[in-house]
User: Fold 2-hydroxy-3-oxopropionate reductase from Eisenbergiella massiliensis.
Amino acid sequence: MKIGFIGLGIMGKPMCKNLLKAGHECTIYDIVEEAAREAVGAGAVKCESAAQAASGRELVITMLPNSPQVKQVVLGENGIADAMDEGCIFVDMSSIAPLASKEIGAALAGRNIEMLDAPVSGGEPKAVDGTLSIMVGGKKEVYDKVKEVLLCMGSSAVYCGELGAGNTTKLANQIVVALNIAACAEAFTLSKKAGVDPELVFDAIRGGLAGSTVMDAKVPMMLDGNDKPGFKIDLHIKDLKNALETGHGVGMGLPLTAQVMEMMQQLVADGFGGKDHSALVKYYEKMTGE
Ligand code: NAD
Assistant:
């Protein structure tokens, strides 16, 4: 397929490379000049604007930080809404607010452009391997048209419902991941403080009920003091804010989410916003002097 790909950061770059590997033609754009380099090396064509990357394409994919960036790239000045051909399918794979997906989709519908929201889970390693979990919202018949392309980047794609349902599903994912990281940070700092080697605690409990993909991926980083992102704390706060707003919209409080978001915000104040979300352990290290 002729694909336009916009946003070649930690996730977008390997996702685009997997599309190229599968034989798709990609025109690409990122606001940071350097971000396009590797994908160009893999056969992509670099463009000077998002609009140029989207023009004449059958499918346009965005992988951007949050709702404001997606809105700006699609509907802003020189946005891709005016550049995409009628009949082009737009798939936003960023994690954004479900309400923003609906607003963007409604604006595009008037131009005969269908939109899906298809955020992903699995982080950089699974983006590289092409084994992401993809959660999709939008019209089922539109999803059926691009499912095969999405599966060049993921090992599973689940159709979750109407536009916005992909991002609502992703918010559930982000709550579980954030609370799981917080639980690991709290538990492993306690074991250290109480005099038991956290490496041994990890070996002892990871195969039991407490074990999780999050524990396996993030606790070794905590114990090694490795905070290279991965998934940045700034971006996780964005997701938790979107979750709280979505909860507000349906009249539901999210007390655990609010608590972990506050802890992450404290870390941003301490200069860790660009670090991996596993750096949440530093909140406890500061508290205990460990
Ligand atoms: P990132 O910050 O590494 O990448 C975002 C890219 O978008 C950057 O290269 C940036 O230059 C580009 N960009 C920003 N504004 C732009 C604009 N106006 N026009 C063109 N390019 C622009 O972030 P990431 O980790 O790749 O995450 C991207 C999305 O995927 C986010 O919504 C994030 O929540 C989600 N996500 C990330 C992970 C992860 O582990 N990193 C996992 C799942 C989902």
User: Anything to note?
Assistant: The chain is about 50% helix and 15% strand. Residues 168-288 form a domain with the N-(1-d-carboxylethyl)-l-norvaline Dehydrogenase; domain 2 fold (CATH 1.10.1040.10). The beta strands are 2-6, 25-29, 45-46, 59-62, 89-92, 114-117, 120-121, 132-137, 154-161. The chain has a mean pLDDT of 97.
